[in-house]
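#struct-pred

JT: dropping the chains for the assembly here, can someone run the whole complex?
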Amino acid sequence: MRALRRLGAESVTLVLATVIFLVPFAFMLLTAVKDQTQATDLDFAWPTDWPIVANFVAVVEARDYVLLRAYVNSTVITVASVALLVVFASMAAFVLQRRPGRVSRLAGFLVLSGLIIPPAVVPTIWLLQALGLFKTLPGMILAEVSFHLSFAMLLFRAFIAAIPRELDEAAQIDGCGGFRLFFRVIFPLLRPVTITVILVSSVNIFNDFVNPLYLLPGDENATVQVTLYNFQSQYNTQWNLLFMDIVLITIPPLLLFIFFNRKIVAGMTAGAVKG
Amino acid sequence: MTRQHVGPRTGPGPVPGPGRASRRRRDAAYPYALYLPAAVVFGVIFLVPTAMAFYFALTRWTLFDSTFVGLDNFRDFLAEQNLSIGFGNTLFYAVLTSGLKVVLGLLLGVLLTSRLRLRGFLRSVVFFPTLVSTVAVGITFSMLLKPDTGLVNEALAVVGVDGRDWLGDASTALLSVALVDVWKGVGLATVIYIAGIMSIPTEYYQAVAVDGGGAWHRFRHITLPLSWPATYSVIILSFIGGLRSFDLIWTMTRGGPGFTSDTIASIIYKQYQAGFFGLSTAGNVLLFLIVTVIAVPLNHFLGKRQVAV
Amino acid sequence: MKTSHRMAGAALAVLTTAALTSCGSGSGAGSGPAADGSVTLKFLVDNSMGTTATAKALTDAFMRANPQIKIETETRPGGSEGDNIVKTRLSTGDMSDVFWYNSGSLLQALNPAQTMVDLTGDPVLAGVQQDYLPVVSQDGKAYGVPAGTLTGGGILYNRKIYERLKLKVPKTWAEFMANNDTIKAAGITPVIGTFKDSWTSQLFVLGDFFNVQAAVPAFARDYTANKVKFAGTPAAQAGFEHLAEVHAKGYLNEGFGSATNDQGVKMLAEGKGAHYAMLSSALPPVIATLPQAATDVGFFGIPGPDASRNGATVWEPAAVYIAKTSENVAAAKKFLAFIASPPAAEAVTAAVPPTGPYRIKGAELPEDAIQAAKDLQAYVDEGATAPALEFVSPVKGPSLEQITVAVGSGLTPPAEGAAQYDKDVEKQAKQLGLAGW
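RK: done, full complex below.
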């Protein structure tokens, strides 16, 4: 009886979640496979025509295969900046949480400021120009790192606080201090939050749109979100191609997430603090 | 419940300093050098341009040249016609979205760490909206919320409720955008909560199991208090995010109809779009002050909170 | 300290890899002529279908005639986001050799004297109609050549509905409203509103400028000098009142608050709505999918109070300019001279149906032009046109579209809307540092 009720509750949850979260997705898919006239209606009508291949080819070929270059650029930017972000932010968050004082108060304030203040576009361009990094991937990567640092540090700091200090002290008695203490003892314990930071900041950086638009102009430097502009303009939009593009740039990260889901869960559990 | 009073300290705030004797050893364990890479990148690429921008808040700036005008921009921004509507909307939006994200994120987090069948599938489903670009979300929901052919109104009609022009109607536009924001953002909150719940040592649950506590007891006395780092992160991130939010508002309503769903950030964005760069920077400085006044005490309060198991 | 070194090494490796993969991507102003005399020009255009198709027709035709010059087209978003990109690239010295941008007041905000090549007196301008030059000039110096055609801003109407209901093109606002009554009685939406794309709500105000000028000939000059306002000038405030009246009489389609521009054009072409206050340039992009938009949709200027003074407000074509940072000015000038010639107009006509007359000497509207363009040509032939206010005054408030949505949705009374707009304009004039504000 109880098992039955449980099954009922589970199915209800499942159906509800599916409807709320997947109906919009169904709409995107449906629009992506319509012809242009019908897509303009933006409704749930069943496609009268199925130009799936034509739409797909049109999107991939648009502007001399810019989408493929955009994939490469976005992937490089995302992977490199997330790697730097995790290392830099976790290290800094560790000192910030463990060593109170004037320096950390200032750092804490700067972390909040980073969350609050939007990046100043034009001065950032001047600065990157001065460093010779404007319109280069390294410049874009460093910019993404600095724009997402606050977010990552905030998460790391909150979770480092949950790690008992006794651990540090024990490690110190074993002669472990500073960098070694952090990377050998603390960092492995941060696995659940590290995975969260990786997930969330990859999504944010992969989907970033305004910063690449200004800091990385030019067709050869395109990133995936900027390709949406190929099909959407101020006066008219090719909705079917726009949604095909949206689907194409959303599905790879989704597949990655589904594929790694098991590993992600395993990683999170393995990182749990044992007592 | 033998462990009632020995829960770990989980507030992220600074710890009361230890005695003078151990300070030197402590400093050696936590060298400032660990700050260095983050500080260099953040300082050079974020702080320097920001400081430059703050100077331009005092100028009339066309990008080609700038004239120093003192505090004129601040005066002009404060005289902006719809600023008070925008201020009210900003608070409403931030409180509503962050509140819902905390509650729903926690519930989904608990659900998705329980022994649910299809847990993996549901996790992907809930996380999916965060992967979709804001533009796509905006267009999709604008369509679903359309008055005549939108699915939301058609579904409401089935149960006998008369829908309305959700985004075109001044009284529901902002609320509708806020709910879409929650739809898009709750996956993030859930992921953070999953990490928080996963970080709770299993011994605590075992202790409850030994004491014979039920699921509610377990949630109330273990999961809720011990996932505090997650709660803290979700509140701060989504509240500050909500105060600053404009991208979804911009794609769905452009602050309209008229000015009824404008927030401070969307008003600032409009000045920027119009090419009033000094004015928009002044707006950003003011927004920074407002958010700081709200967020710093909040951060302090939440960070200091001790766990009361 | 082994661990930390390893981590730092990994970070460095990531950076280096990234640096290597990004080599050789320099673009921007491009480099000078290559050894074999061939030149590559970069051409930045906005991403609207009309512009990209026009740009492609122009560059293809030009490259066929000049094989030693290659043109690479790059796109940017349109609207105010696009304005900011153009400003950012000009001010950071990163503009492409030639670029497509609005004429009129928006050009004034680009500091042309500092950022563009002065073409005054240059043979490049030989093919340009003289009365176009003021909209690409600042302080008497001209900087661009017209790309594309004149556009009418007024009422696009469905001729099939007019035929069926035996209606006449209205010469006064009262006649227009009477037509709307008849159309509504026939069960058709009289006026299409698409306020989701808020810019479309401005047409009743901006497209009314012919009538403003007819009533107050010195309006543009006095307005720029801060001597006259929208609120308190009955002829100028009329646009706001029309907008409110159309809403109050229930002439708008259901869901006008969330309808988009595409949907509006589609409704009009399919005969689900009779009138749409719009630019004639909204039509060519949809002709491929809605062929009847070419024949069934006509154009008339927004009617004013007086049938004897009836005319249309027009938008001048955008222009192509040369960035001062270009290293290929000679090749760029060659390209601009080509754009301002009848062969270029023919190439464009073959690719994009013109929305009105060209501004190039000797370029004619083709026989099979779309109906709206022919209707506009008739106004031009009669001399019954006036350029929109933004082509004769640098003053234009950025919030007009939000204000017109509010007025057009009945949220704000028209007089209050006009007053709000005056305040908005004042802020803009101050930010531009105009004299007298």
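JT: nice. Confidence is low (pLDDT under 50) at residues 1-11 of chain B. The first strand of chain B starts at residue 59 and ends at 61.
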